Amino acid sequence: MCVPFRRADRDQLTDLVNTHVAAVVPGVSVSVNTVLSDLERQPEGFITDPWVSERVTLVAEQRGSVVAGAHLLRCRPGPEVGESYRDSGEINWFVCRPPASFRPDALDAAELLTRACLARLARWKVRRVHADGALPAPVVYGLPRTWPHIRAVYEAAGFRHVGDTEVILLARVADLPHPEPVRGVTFRRTVGECGTRFTACADGRALGFIEVDTALARPERHLRADGLADIGDLHIDPAALGTGLEHRLLAHAAGWLRLCGADRLAAHLGEEETEMHGLLTGAGFIELTRTDRGWELRPARPGPAEAPQIPGRYRSG
């Protein structure tokens, strides 16, 4: 059956969340406190989180065990809300046990939970319905290709991928280049928009920069992501491409990360950024997965509040 989340469900729901996180990025897990905090607010979404007017978390139970969970958001219809979010509903994330020969009922529970989610979204009478997989862990967003069972649930419910696809890469800091002096080029460390910025300069102009974020884990959330950093931004002047500048920027960032105690560095690229993909993999990055962003409910009949009619019974709050 499907019921509203209760505090007693927190440990089992966190286990489900961590199972999905582990399939995307190695060495990262979240605490119960992190999951509970995410159900109340998402401080990292400082632009979009204030637009949320209602949050609901539902779980599916079988024989007293939580086997699936979903977190739903509803955004206000006011003009202060961004157009794509205005008067919308979203399955912010959905986790469930994958179907297995010894647990064939796991997918049944996921389908029941999906129906409960769609029923709640229909009652909200929102203009648009989205879905995502934005778990409260770094590097986990969109719908990763490592979650085929979640993709099957979304597609069966009528969601379609309408956005872009991003490539998630990871490197061991130990495998990244080491900084070496370059004649005529200086490197400056400053505060950036997405972390600490390293800028390569020559003849008074910037040739490129890289920003690394070493504050992925909020201390009060007890996130186990020690040693993980993220490339917040990487830009190379087109005239400097192919000169090895990107390796030198990575080398200076890596030197800083070693001082910080970071041992892994993540990167995110658009699927079409094939040249940058080659540059990063050539510098020691490996591809973890690809994640599809932007899922939208496409009902069979017109009307934003309609939910697919799937046989079965469910109970939701």
Automatic annotation (TrEMBL):
Domain N-acetyltransferase: 148-304
Gene3D superfamilies associated with the record: 3.40.630.30
SUPFAM superfamilies: Acyl-CoA N-acyltransferases (Nat)
Region span, Disordered: 298-317
Pfam family of the protein (one): Acetyltransf_1
The protein, known as: GNAT family N-acetyltransferase
Protein species of origin: Streptomyces composti
